[in-house]
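Forwarding these from the shared drive since the link keeps breaking.
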Amino acid sequence: MALRRRGWHVAFLDSNPDLDPGEAAGERVESLDAAADVVILATPVDVAVTMLASCRAPLITSVCSVMAPLRAAGDDRFVAGHPLAGSANRGIEFAAADLFRDATWFIDRDNDLVREIIDACGAHAELVEAGEHDRAVALTSHLPQILSTALARVFQPPEPALTGTTDHWEEATGEISPEKKFSALSAGERPGVPGRTWKKTQAAVT
């Protein structure tokens, strides 16, 4: 929405045929083959990896919460990105022009057009190595989310949509569960997290 207000032509692709983008986009496209100067992947990470493999745009960037899996799947046309901003709502229908205002927007390589997008959204670009970013986010964001979920399940009656296996989390939220996300990020490394701590945490939340 912020881009449209600054004169950008914004098109979107979504599997929901009834989705109304409101003011966030001016056109709907049916595939990633549509002509575009830049494609922004704003999906769960596993979906973004799949889309990245088939996208033929001259420039591709992302706004996912992790970078390394996308960096591994991308080529020189791709800039992994992660703006530190968001809301409790999901989807283009909840777009807000001021969502990224004054936010830090991490990118793993420099690109003038991506910086122009970030500036147009009112955010500030900061370069970071993809693996370093993911290790930091795993400890400062994903791990606290896992712990808070575990504590909520211990001290409060569980919400029906979030009980059971991590697959139920994915059905309820449309994204990879925090348990799986942290496990994937930390496999073989677990920076600062002893293996026995991770196992106890995993047992508490599954």
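-- next protein --
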Amino acid sequence: MHKAEPYATLICHSLIAIPAVAFDVALPFRYTAQSPAPGYTADCGYGFEAGDGNYFSVKVPEGNYNVTATVTWVTSMHRRNFGPDGKVRNTLGDYPEAVRQTAAEERVALIDLHSMSAAFYEALGAEKSPSAFGAGGRDGTHHSAYGAYELAKCVVNGMRAARLDLVKYLVDDVPAFDPAHPDSPDAWNLPASPRFSNRPPRGN
């Protein structure tokens, strides 16, 4: 059974000097959480728990600290996998729906990046969608700077839709974003980091 607490515990390692702290934590379940199976299929068994309502407490191993987090569940974005009809095919099994179901049952905020990423990829189409992915589009899981930027805009949309308190920390000039009408990859440019590498990270 996947639980939210281990994710928050990792975050809290950097907060051990603070006796009491409240923070917001987004809980995505990554592709690497899937059970390996041919064709990227997986049955998660709906084994997610979000804690107790909107909040849960975390015990930090280095001491007894009262850490409270506001939980927001985030569905995983799609991989680049198109069907003959030009629609993105789900390769994540039941995981996205499990996150949606858990968020509804626990009455916590949800950012449905799974749905928004499908709209984003389909707007680009099978021919242009590689520009949103790493290794010149050869990596169908991890994103290029352009793809990551557009998905970050999707997350901001989700934050606004969920009316998260975090929205007040956004800069004033962040416009609304429609993933079905993304920025053109041909007109978008961000200089690569000096440590940029085309080597895909581990995990698919």
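The two ends are 21 Å apart (CA to CA). The longest helix spans residues 145-161.

- D.
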